[in-house]
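STRUCTURE:
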């Protein structure tokens, strides 16, 4: 595919690296050449120091022949304008990163399509959904639902009290087991497990199961002592904090700590929920956190624009006996360190945006793709078409890519786990766990 990316910031560069692995024809646009010089030198792509909204610039990079134009500069108006121009010139599909919540409402999406913007993406909103979902379950690092929760993928950090350690998986996860272990993150390695593999203390284990057996997995993973989240402290009053507070259930009491007084007044106006209290102060101030009863708080969420501050604040919260912490990471270089420090749930808007756009490019009918930041992997939901390769043989005979495993499927509204003898059928919704380089290859089985 011929792909043009406007914006060589964190989202644009992360996406360019991801797409280069698929050997696409990538052109990266940015007014500042220093933003993409290193990327161009190390990856097979072209960089152009031009204004993304310049008609002559778009003509010169071949927008009329492009398959996909992606506007991910920090400026909403630039992204929308560039997409409109590219579409008018002949680009087949356009995607724009936006900031305005009203734009993503269903009543406005058709309007944007008529003016040349096929898809809109708002990383702050998607991140807020992940945060709100994660915080409701203090014992889970990552959570992903399929088809109304008929299937659930859970990432759980197991410790020395888990009942499932040091047992070969062939003995632990037999054909009748109510769960599959689809992946293991151990130190810096992500493992697609086999029968002889075992779980070790401090592994991050990805379970696929049906809703009925969630309490059972919580028990065998040694997580029954984790409290339900009722009290939440959020550090930082940015857009992600606003959307997360709106999405959290009303039974939670939420305190948002923000340094800027004017922003505090704005937060009160934007959120307007009786269970949300906005506090003017510095979330790094331990005395303030003590005054706000952090020791009686079940969840602490650090969403400032500073990755280091978020990590250190979560560490401080853990030392004050907060069981659930969530950190926003703007810099992917800190992921391994944050995981080694046992920070908790890690959120990165670059990977969120890239996953959303990446799913549009896969050859199959992909309902959704979720990037698992810590595991450097993706989980995807495929809707099975008639005649696709995945339906022709039992799973064990399909020779799927080595870095992929199928965790389960939903058939006629009912979730079920799969094994080697399972025959996938037309209309099934299949959940796959893939190391990043293998998702595109797996998609060909569903095309």
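SEQUENCE:
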């Amino acid at each position: 595919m011929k792909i043009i990316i406007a914006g060589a910031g964190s989202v644009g560069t992360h996406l360019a690296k991801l797409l280069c692995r698929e050997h696409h024809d990538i052109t990266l646009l940015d007014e500042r050449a220093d933003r993409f010089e290193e990327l161009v030198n190390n990856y097979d792509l072209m960089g152009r120091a031009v204004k993304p909204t310049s008609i002559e610039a778009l003509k010169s990079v071949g927008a009329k022949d492009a398959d996909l134009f992606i506007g991910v500069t920090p400026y909403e108006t630039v992204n929308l304008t560039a997409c409109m121009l590219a579409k008018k010139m002949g680009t087949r599909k356009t995607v724009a990163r936006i900031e305005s919540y009203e734009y993503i409402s269903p009543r406005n999406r058709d309007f944007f399509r008529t003016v040349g913007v096929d898809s809109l993406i708002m990383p702050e909103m998607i991140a807020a959904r992940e945060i709100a979902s994660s915080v409701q379950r203090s014992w889970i690092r990552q959570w992903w639902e399929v088809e109304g929760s008929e299937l659930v993928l859970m990432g759980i950090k197991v410790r020395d009290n888990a009942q499932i350690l040091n047992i070969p998986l062939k003995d632990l996860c037999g054909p009748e087991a109510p769960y599959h272990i689809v992946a293991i993150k151990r130190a810096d390695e992500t493992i697609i497990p086999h029968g002889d593999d075992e779980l070790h203390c401090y592994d991050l284990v990805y379970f696929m199961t049906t809703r009925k057996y969630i309490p059972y997995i919580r028990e065998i993973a040694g997580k029954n002592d984790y409290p339900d989240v009722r009290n939440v402290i959020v550090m930082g009053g940015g857009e992600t904090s606003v959307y997360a507070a709106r999405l959290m259930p009303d039974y939670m009491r939420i305190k948002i700590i923000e340094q800027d007084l004017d922003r505090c007044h704005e937060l009160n106006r934007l959120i307007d929920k009786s269970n949300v209290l906005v506090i003017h102060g510095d979330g790094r101030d331990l005395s303030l956190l003590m005054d706000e009863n952090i020791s009686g708080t079940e969840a602490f969420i650090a969403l400032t624009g500073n990755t280091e501050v978020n990590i250190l604040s979560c560490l401080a919260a853990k030392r004050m006996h907060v069981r659930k912490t969530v950190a926003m990471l703007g810099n992917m270089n800190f992921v391994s360190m944050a995981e080694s420090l046992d920070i908790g749930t890690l959120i990165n808007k670059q990977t969120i945006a890239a996953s959303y756009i990446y799913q549009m490019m896969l050859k199959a009918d992909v309902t959704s793709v979720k990037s698992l930041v810590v595991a450097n992997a993706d989980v995807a939901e495929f809707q099975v078409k008639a005649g696709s390769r995945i339906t022709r043989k039992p799973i064990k005979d399909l020779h799927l890519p080595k870095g992929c495993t199928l965790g389960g499927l939903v058939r006629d509204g009912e979730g079920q786990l799969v094994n080697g003898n399972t025959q996938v059928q037309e209309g099934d919704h299949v959940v796959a766990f893939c190391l990043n380089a293998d998702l595109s290859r797996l998609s060909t089985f569903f095309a």
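REMARK: The chain has a mean pLDDT of 90.
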